[in-house]
Amino acid sequence: MTNGTGTEFWDRVADRYAARPVKDVAAYDAMLADVAARLTATDRVLEIGCGTGSTALCLGPAVAEWQATDASPEMLRIARAKPAPGNVSFALSDADGAFDGAPYDAVCAFHILHLVPDTRATLARIHANLKPGGLLFSKTFCFGDMNLLMRALIPVLRARGLVPPATALTSRTLRQAIVEAGFEIETQRIFGRSRNSQYIVARKSTQDTQP
């Protein structure tokens, strides 16, 4: 959920964020089910931008190792206070510095690719730190696809500290960036009512042996 850019924002809102219920439980559960169906019990998974740890705690018990990272100390404080199995761990790191345990079988990047300073650079690092055949799971809010009025409102909200810094990606530019990083997109869909929140599953080629 968070990266180094905007960390102060996420530290400030962490308690309110944690107390806020999931807006669309059915959509969230359906996304988790899709991710779970693609993972195996022997997978080592890295999650960047884990926020308060809800996804890690839902999916982590079914894999060999789940390393969840976030750049916000306050978000991690909340995540670490939750009961977690021994194979789920939390570490303080921004999205570009989270790969100490590489290579991974899968990387989860939920609501983070629009928050990092350079989406393409982050995707390149993810690709480089996945095993051949490894999976990228992402869900990204595409501000660039919103209507003109909503896009004009975002800088006002940001100036008032109500939203974090973010890149106005579109679905097309997001997809293009993932492909240019070396991935093959396997699935792109929307869960729930938010038409601008794109769920994408992409795979690194099994022929790609770069570390």
From TrEMBL:
<dbReference type="Pfam" id="PF13489">
    <property type="entry name" value="Methyltransf_23"/>
</dbReference>
<dbReference type="GO" id="GO:0032259">
    <property type="term" value="P:methylation"/>
</dbReference>
<keyword id="KW-0808">Transferase</keyword>
<dbReference type="InterPro" id="IPR029063">
    <property type="entry name" value="SAM-dependent_MTases_sf"/>
</dbReference>
<keyword id="KW-0489">Methyltransferase</keyword>
<dbReference type="GO" id="GO:0008168">
    <property type="term" value="F:methyltransferase activity"/>
</dbReference>
<protein>
    <submittedName>
        <fullName>Class I SAM-dependent methyltransferase</fullName>
    </submittedName>
</protein>
